[in-house]
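pasting for the record
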Amino acid sequence: MNIHALLVTRFTEALEKMGVENAPIPVSRSARPEFGEYQFNGAMALAKQLKQKPRDIAEKIVETVELSDVASKLEIAGPGFINIHLDDAWLASQCEQSLNDPRLGIATSAEQNIVVDYSSPNLAKEMHVGHLRTTIIGDAVVKVLEFLGHNVIRQNHMGDWGTQFGMLLAHLSDKLQEEVAETALSDLEDFYREAKIRFDEEEGFADRAREYV
């Protein structure tokens, strides 16, 4: 059940009964709860075409549109806004029907092949909370797309794993010759920055890095 689509259909039918065809059907969510759940704002746009006051057009629409099964109240506000207050009992029945449906009333889409890229970490650096965030978002997107019936390919591209590792290996080999010490993963951040400076500035270092690769 798509409430917005249902309301658009009902207002389209009402305007056709009034002799108005192919008119825009601007149905939107209400900005404030006292205005109901939805609003129809098409009366003003029809004033010039029908040569009537927008509020008179809105009154005619309210008389014509068939929403007694869906809305508890339709009210005209301002120059011709129609506020739609949905019926609580109708909403409850729609919820009950959805809960009894394993797909919650959501239809499947035309199947597509979709690739979703996750965090794509740089293997020469430590991962951080940003990688976790994008991975969670990516997995949520994947589950929604699969639920809609698409064939989803999960991709986690391992970025920049070539020259950077040659730089690190060449730099670390020099460091190990200078001193023997345990190296923590966090040290790689500093080693990488040092190696990048040497790669850009030190003669012969870039060639050594490429040989290591």
